[in-house]
Amino acid sequence: MKWLVFAVLILAQQPAEVPRDKGTTEPNRAKSTAHAQNASGDQTQSTRPTPASAKVPAAAESQRSTATANDHAGTSNQQTSDEDRSTQRKLTSFTGVLAGVGVLQLVVMFLTWLVYRRQAHEMRRQRHEMKRQRHVMYRQYKAMGDQADVMNNQLEAMRGQLAATKESTDLVISKERARISIEIPSALKLNDGFINQIGCKIHVSAPTPAIIVNTEIRAEVTDSPTSHGTWGMNMNITSIETRTSCMIQRSTLLLEDVDDDLRQAINEKQKFVHFHGFIRYRDVFQSEATDPHYTKFSYLWAVGADVKGGVPKISDGRWISEWIENPPGYNTET
After folding, report:
1. Measured between alpha carbons, how far is 2 from 106 in angstroms, rounded to an integer?
2. Across-strand partners of 296?
3. Which pLDDT score is estimated for 200?
4. Residues paired with 179 in a beta bridge
5. How far apart are alpha carbons 309 and 304 in whole angstroms?
6. How far lies 67's CA from each of 40, 55, 56, 74, 116, in Å?
7. Three-state DSSP state, 314
8. Per-residue b/e over 179-210, b at no fewer than 16 CB within 10 Å?
9. Distance between terminal CA atoms of the chain?
10. 3-state class of 245 per DSSP?
11. Half-sphere exposure of residue 182, counting CA atoms within 13 Å on the CB side?
């Protein structure tokens, strides 16, 4: 683009040269010289004395030829001058067009420069704006980091508060929820016959009501110190009975033919009496989706407090016997 503009400017500054037609100009110049010589000859002849009348026709003929030649030379010179002027006008017009194109190109280049300058200014402004935004975002990032630290500290504090609240809540629930425990008699009394009852006491400590889920109680005689019972009787404890602290008595049937032979077998550890059961209940702080509390017990009537053998102890002529937990660690209250 720049080289084109420079070429246009150079062409515009150089003057347009009129083309020379050597084939036409030199003969015309020769004719003009001849014409001038003829004219000078004519003038010389005119100054001389007029010859005789016999030479007059020849001189007239010569003058007519010279005039005709001069007319042809003038016409040729006029045509050549017109062609030169036309060519010069065309060159002038072409040069003007080239100059106009150069001016337009300069205008376009100036406008392009203005656009580039404006774009550069806009890019600088955008760069400064992006730098400012970057600083703002960095400050926001720092602020968010500080807020995150504050929120973490608040979260830790809330966790501590929740833990303290849960601990205090658990303490309140532990004090206020219902609790159920089971107490069995210290002695086993069996009467002759097929039906005997073995009872127990159910203690309900209920600042708040206990909701009974299910219960079971069972007594049996087996040949092993290990109980294998799979069923029992329902204690029929209702939730209404457990609304306040109270003691509820319940018993189960021992379906076994009791006589002296059975008592002797029990004393000799050939037969064993088992007594077991459980109570499942919820307190008012629990939902139905949570596991209920579980109070369970299992006892064995042990002669001499030793079910593994040995000689039973006798005091005042009576066997020393008692209920022991069987198996050890089975009895629980939740």
Report:
1. 9
2. 278, 332
3. 94
4. 205
5. 9
6. 14, 19, 17, 10, 72
7. strand
8. bbebebeeebebeeeeebebebebebebebbb
9. 98
10. coil
11. 27
What pLDDT, on the 0 to 100 scale, is given for residue 309?
Answer: 45
Question: What is the predicted pLDDT for the residue at 155?
Answer: 92
> Could you count the other beta carbons within 10 Å of the beta carbon of residue 271?
18
Distance CA 277, CA 182 (A): 9
Strand partners, 214: 280
Domain range annotation of the chain: 2-118, 179-333
- Residues (pLDDT < 50) of the chain are 2, 5, 8, 14-58, 307-311
Q: Cβ contacts of residue 269 below 8 Å, gap of 6+?
A: 303, 307, 309
What's phi and psi for 215, nearest 5 deg? -140, 160
Q: Where are the alpha helices (DSSP H) in the chain?
A: 2-13, 22-47, 56-176, 260-267
What rounded mean pLDDT belongs to the chain?
A: 79
Q: Which amino acid is it at 197? A: Q
CA distance 273 to 254: 9
- pLDDT tens digits, 191-212: 999 999 999 999 999 889 999 9
Q: Could you give the CA distance from residue 231 to residue 216 in angstroms, rounded to a whole number?
A: 8
* Residue 133 tokens, joined: 């935004």
What amino acid is encoded at 232 in this protein? G
pLDDT for res 331? 93
Rounded to whole angstroms, how far apart are CA atoms 23 and 13?
30
Of the candidate CATH numbers 1.10.287, 2.30.30, 2.60.40, 3.30.70, the domain formed by 179-333 belongs to: 2.60.40
Place of tokens 């088992």: 274
